[in-house]
Design a protein that fits this description.
Helix content is 47%, strand content 18%. It is of the alpha/beta class.
Length: 337
């Protein structure tokens, strides 16, 4: 009897070992990445930064398909803009073994010490869209914000006959990229003596808050003929399509995502200066891959030029958005020129 019990125990142990081995074989461990990049954009609720993430992941896939090199994009973006949280996420990235950090800075002053600390711990940092120029980041990718602001003003001046009252919609007052765009708008306005800036209006960077600010300012200053928007936040909703008369008010804004294209079609925003937001992630990860993995030199400033969107090329731009993975590009625009 004892012999039989011992045999049964041995048989049971063998079965358990076999099952354990089988389970191990069916669930292999995820291979360790060759390059782990912590991506910290301003806000995970902003579609602009979601598209940047899509571009980053696209480059990672392309690189693996081409070379077998595994790049992990660790998305550490806070749900809403917060420079303090971004600083915490940088420290988290270092603790969790990131090989590099890619960040769009909500508040350069708050994240600069965290960037410098990461670099001191051997983790290189690159910025995109919104820079921290006084930090030890190795490169910045984005448009020339002052020049972009100047372009917004010049386009708006042409749309409203180079005369009348205008307003600036400016988003987060602490974002260095937005500050520079506002500076560009104001500099360019000095060349147009018949234009009067009635105010610069800041707000949390949500479509609802931006729309409310526009409507509040338009009510307080009904003479406003044009809006120079250094970001297109209120155009994510269609409220202004009915609240503003395109025969009386014109908008020129930076950015042109799918929900905003209706403003071009109706003529309320006849020109949008779009950023290739998918390339924010795609080209930034390329630069990090070159710098960190391939040990190549990369430019300290990687410039991107805005894409001028108007009724003449609305279809071309819509198809680019579709390629970057935007699921909500209206089908009606995809067949346009």
């Amino acid at each position: 009897m004892k012999y039989l019990a011992a045999r049964l125990q041995m048989a049971f142990a063998v079965v358990c070992l076999a099952l354990g081995a089988a389970c191990g074989q069916s669930q292999p461990a995820t291979p360790k990445p060759d390059l782990k990049i912590a991506m910290i954009a301003k806000s995970s609720s902003n579609p602009v930064f979601v598209s940047a993430r899509t571009g980053a992941e696209a480059f990672a896939k392309e690189t693996y398909d081409r070379t077998g090199t595994r790049i992990e994009i660790a998305w550490l973006t806070p749900p809403a803009e917060d420079g303090d949280v971004q600083a915490q996420r940088i420290a988290q990235a270092v603790t969790e073994g990131a090989n590099a950090v890619l960040i769009s800075c909500s508040d350069a002053g708050k994240v600069t010490p965290a960037i410098n600390d990461a670099v001191a711990h051997g983790v290189p940092v690159m910025t995109f869209d919104s820079d921290a120029p006084e930090s030890k980041r190795f490169a910045f990718l984005g448009i020339d914000d002052v020049k972009a602001g100047e372009s917004v003003l010049e386009e708006l001046a042409e749309q409203i006959g180079d005369a009348g009252s205008i307003a600036i919609l400016a988003g987060n007052q602490n974002a260095p990229n937005l500050q520079k765009r506002v500076e560009g708008v104001k500099q360019a306005a000095k060349k147009h003596p018949k234009l009067k800036i009635v105010g610069t209006f800041y707000h949390p960077e949500t479509p609802e808050d931006a729309t409310a600010e526009v409507l509040k300012a338009q009510t307080a200053h009904p003479q406003i003929k044009g809006w120079a928007m250094v970001g297109a936040w209120p155009l994510f909703t269609h409220t202004l399509l009915t609240a503003l008369d395109p025969a009386k008010v014109k908008i020129v804004a930076i950015d042109a995502l799918p929900a905003e294209l209706a403003y071009v079609k109706t003529g309320l925003a006849p020109v949008l200066l779009a950023q290739k937001t998918g390339d924010w992630g795609h080209e930034s990860v390329r630069a990090i891959f070159d710098k960190v993995h391939l040990k190549k030199d990369v430019p300290q400033i990687v410039r991107m030029e805005p894409f001028r969107v108007s009724s003449e090329n609305l279809g071309t731009w819509a198809r680019l958005l579709k390629r970057w993975g935007f699921p909500d590009v209206p089908a009606e625009y995809l067949t346009l020129p």
